[in-house]
Amino acid sequence: ALAGRRAVVTGSNSGIGLGVAEALAAAGADVVINSFTDTPEDHALAERLARDHGVAVRYIPADMSKPADCRALVEKAGHCDILVNNAGIQHVAPIPEFPAEKWDAIIAINLSSAFHTTAAALPMMQAAGWGRIVNIASAHGLTASPFKSAYVAAKHGIVGLTKVTALETAAEDITCNAICPGYVLTPIVEKQIPDQMKTHNMSREDVIAKVMLARQPSGQFATVDQIGATTVFLCSDAAAQITGTTISVDGGWTAL
Ligand code: NAD
């Protein structure tokens, strides 16, 4: 269904970004995957995706904490029909102890990068007369948790950016939406488990069941495949009138 479309997915050598890249490739899109690491494994991953799905896949390194890199990623892609702003990091600490450089890095990677990639991609989409922008926000784009000040601020910010992008493109065949996942068991979540074990003085199993999934009424993690399929749906003709909004994939978290 997406044959002939070119997708750029930021932060896509692991986790949700990789799941989204895989789903877009399976739907027939050519894909640019990205991270800042530029390892042989990153390039091998692009080759593997291309082989598995019979589409063109390129790995382009770019550091999403740097505005010039964000714009260069889209320029180097050459064209961008589908932009998925996914790169993100997390840090958990009470506000008085929250390192200022962590705040700056989270705002840069989780929020500002999407502004810069969108600024570079929109003229391409406008010239082509078609475009889809999917911002990977979070349940934390709609609600808050203690100790995640920068993350919650950045995710609320990207929901705001999503609405403005949608309004500026509403008269064209371009949409912009945000997906708000609840907990998905990816490396970013794995890394939080030791901190949460310390903060709550709990075992790994208890942190998963009583802290993380306590917020998720389904009692289950969402999966990267589900976020990928939701992205493909937002790129489909059925979703052409869906713009400027959020889709929660959170097992009921934000209904609580
Ligand atoms: P992850 O750690 O597996 O993936 C993060 C990705 O971002 C990686 O590919 C990494 O290489 C990339 N990245 C990090 N810093 C970068 C930088 N400076 N430049 C370029 N790439 C960079 O985590 P994930 O869970 O897959 O997270 C992906 C997105 O989904 C994030 O925006 C995250 O906030 C969001 N999210 C995750 C969950 C969850 O429970 N896992 C829930 C809601 C939202």
TrEMBL record:
Belongs to the short-chain dehydrogenases/reductases (SDR) family. Pfam families: adh_short_C2. NCBIfam families: PHB_DH, PRK12429.1. This is 3-hydroxybutyrate dehydrogenase. GO terms for biological process: monocarboxylic acid metabolic process. One of its GO terms (molecular function) is 3-hydroxybutyrate dehydrogenase activity. InterPro entries: 3-OHbutyrate_DH (IPR011294), NAD(P)-bd_dom_sf (IPR036291), Sc_DH/Rdtase_CS (IPR020904), SDR (IPR050259), SDR_fam (IPR002347).
